[in-house]
User: Fold these one by one.
Assistant:
Number 1:
Amino acid sequence: MTIGEKTTTNTYLNYINGSWTASSSGEVDKSTNPANAQEIVGYIQKSTAADLDRAVQAAKEAQVQWRKLSGAARGDYLFKTANILEARLNDIAETMTREMGKSLPEAKGETARGVAILRYYAGEGMRKVGDVIPSTDSEALMFTNRVPLGVVGIISPWNFPVAIPVWKIAPALIYGNAVVFKPAQETAVTAAKVIECFAEAGLPAGVLNMVTGAGSVIGQGIIDHKDIKGISFTGSDQVGKLVAQGAVARGAKYQLEMGGKNPVIVAEDADLDLAVEATVSGGLRSTGQKCTATSRVIVQSKIYDLFKEKLLAKVNEIKVGDGLNSDTWMGPCASENQLNTVLSYIEKGKQEGATLLAGGKRITGGGLENGFYVEPTVFENVNRNMVIAQEEIFGPVLALIKVDTIEEALEVANDTKYGLSASIFTQNIGNMLSFIREMDAGLVRINAESAGVELQAPFGGMKQSSSHSREQGQAAIEFYTSIKTVFVKA
Ligand SMILES: NC(=O)C1=CN([C@@H]2O[C@H](COP(=O)(O)OP(=O)(O)OC[C@H]3O[C@@H](n4cnc5c(N)ncnc54)[C@H](O)[C@@H]3O)[C@@H](O)[C@H]2O)C=CC1
Ligand SMILES: O=C(O)CCC(=O)C(=O)O
């Protein structure tokens, strides 16, 4: 296949140097539907180090001309891609739901967000990239300029199969880098459909390449490749650390977005209906598989019982099912592995003495027996040192923790290795200000759920949630470029 051609069969190819190409391994993996494990969504390439090497070589060669284009010219390709993605929104969203299980409205929302991100970064091609700085030499001109890194490697997870790749690829391209993209194998069909949009927009061959395959082969290959000058990663803590170590060892730039153990604090003066709504939405949408998902619910003792009653009423109303059904609110876990991880955390919670208030089991009845479904789950009597209060579960599990004061709530909220997102529900300005000041999280949200990121604002975490860098909005320029300080004297 050549540039612009659609992959029409259900075998999806790598995209290297402007062509859709099979892996040199001759092998494929299958991508299955977590709502019905017997359904194969598509076959994807099980690529080799040699495939990756060809992609990096193509990117290296293409970047030479790509960086010479004006920002506006690069932006035009992103505008075109946005329009194509928008026209295919329904098909891509449906593929996403079939591949990883989130409900169709959420998948459509995410794809629309991909369109908006592309338009935002297309416009970025027309914005300033430097500053004039007064020199102590009155006859000199001193200013900063930004240059691309070169070839950038992008390693993405399965939980936001459109938004995360797009929020990494779009800024990489607009600032003049070429890209080698390795999506999560679980959502590689959705990724291929996104890359088709870039290809059809006529992006020059080699500027954007996609190689699918195992993390241990293609992901590790990106970490180790001498011609990849920057690596942007979102995923687990463990793999993030491998990316950092490998990048440091060979002097490459890296950026990591990893886990969260995000708290919501419900103060005694909170609007409880609003707080319940946000806890359910922030904790259980996408089956809790967001790095920004609410997982610890820290509630002041005075309103604890009332809040709990309202929360359980809402959780018990949740309709679990195939994300393609219009009455489904919560889909399956994205994979059998993910389901088993969630179930093992639920067991751990019970063993450690937390009290199960709702859910806790795999769902196998009602036509859901072939999928990876778990009940929305709520624990109480959780103490802050329990595993379920410390480790990222990445599933629909809420842990209620009772506290007496806001000071205690903040102390508990900060007591994990993570610091991605945090919410408070309160009407009290003093509480709000203490929370903004003292909460160690990259996103602090007042009277709003912990999940949900605006594309024009910086996104990233503190502590072990990230590499302390930020993605999205104008913050992206910090990763995808290097600053050159220019001193000119006639
Ligand atoms: N922060 C976030 O948004 C995400 C967090 N996670 C967390 O990670 C847990 C496990 O999920 P996984 O899919 O296994 O995440 P993962 O970290 O293994 O996968 C993320 C990406 O890294 C790649 N990868 C895997 N091994 C690699 C290696 N050795 N070198 C380079 N790249 C490699 C994968 O192929 C995928 O593209 C989840 O339960 C959740 O706690 C998972 C996905 C997203
Ligand atoms: O909350 C969001 O919308 C983004 C979450 C995210 O980036 C993630 O889960 O990886």
Number 2:
Amino acid sequence: MRTERANDGGQVERREPKVIVGAAIIRDGRVLACARSAPPEVAGMWEFPGGKVEPGETETAALVRECAEELAVRVEIGARVGRNVRMAHGRSVLKVYAARLLHGDQPQPLEHSALRWLSATELDTVTWLPADAPIVAALRPLLGPAS
Ligand SMILES: Nc1nc2c([nH]c(=O)n2[C@H]2C[C@H](O)[C@@H](COP(=O)(O)OP(=O)(O)OP(=O)(O)O)O2)c(=O)[nH]1
């Protein structure tokens, strides 16, 4: 997916969309949901931990870095969950991967206002960022029956 715009000379430039990665961290049939603390427009809405992939960084490395920065945990990244979700009129794309915690690490909300472990039946009890809707739908079957 690319976006196009005319440069000063009127020629069309094609730009790769900025990639945002998210980690669907699953433990015991529940996924970790994180409440954004900023900016004000989305504070209190829920998301997967993650962020922008830096230049030269792989998507997996970005997820490992973001999980360490945001939650102080080590993770193993697994399969993609759901499809690429276009955001910001195609200027960015959200890609979510399944992940699992390593070494018994416990997530800490270093940058979020709250963390919750949600079972399949609890996924709709929080307000997700709008772009996450198709990911949440694809995630539901990956979570086991509620316990
Ligand atoms: N991390 C994350 N971001 C998401 C999700 N859904 C969604 O629309 N986004 C949007 C919110 C933000 O506009 C953008 C990610 O920005 P961010 O602020 O988390 O990224 P970052 O950590 O690299 O931020 P920065 O401090 O470098 O600006 O993607 C999601 O599930 N997880």
Number 3:
Amino acid sequence: MEVIRLDKISLWRRTQEEFSYDLKKTFLSILEGKYRKPVKKLILDNIDLIVNSGEKIGIIGANGSGKSTLLKVICGILKPTSGLVRVRGKIAPLIELGAGFDPEISVMDNIMLYGVLLGFSRTEMRKRVNSILEFAELQDYALIPVKALSSGMVARLGFAIATDAQPDILVLDEVLSVGDESFKNKSQQRIEKFWNENTTILVVSHDLKFIEKTCNQAIWLDKGKIKFTGSANAVVECYLQTVNKADNS
Ligand SMILES: Nc1ncnc2c1ncn2[C@@H]1O[C@H](COP(=O)(O)OP(=O)(O)OP(=O)(O)O)[C@@H](O)[C@H]1O
């Protein structure tokens, strides 16, 4: 069964966002003669992709080729400039953990807020709060504002919320390591469990051995385009051959 479909996805971004949004800075940079007009760059270039239920897909490619951007488009964190994204089922985005939190409100309120963002109802989230706090080991922090947590605690909270319910689709940026040693083990176990089940998984990684070992399919992204797709072994081999050839020439 098809669970993700991307139809002709393209995404443009400004390369100098800071200039266009900070008026004072823009003004100063004009005075100093340093102002450059924001340049737009094509980050994803006409991507078509179909993912079926239960597939484990590795996404590889050079730095800046658009891998994280592609994941964010699939999760709905970024809207493509053109094209269609269709996703069926609950998605657990394990990327930029905690980026959606409001630092001023309590851990408990953030759990509710984030859960609703992920598509769960408030009633459902109310039932989940305790198990989330327990997994994140933050029971004593329920009423404390998120800004008072350490960055590791914030990541733990983000991980616990996204994975508390069994997701249909798991999206991971880089092999995940969250929190201290004991939490790392706990979170890895939870991910391994999803890996062994029918969960659809998309993972970005530079660890090609890991991709070969854990994924059945792979996608090689190159300058925002899908260069090659197929079995994980074939894609990794093709990628390595091309990279090595470029190094030797
Ligand atoms: N917030 C942003 N604003 C503008 N451009 C961005 C932003 N984030 C990323 N980009 C640009 O988008 C392109 C793709 O970035 P992306 O993070 O998707 O690459 P990646 O393949 O995941 O790279 P890496 O392997 O280094 O993690 C890069 O050229 C980057 O400069």
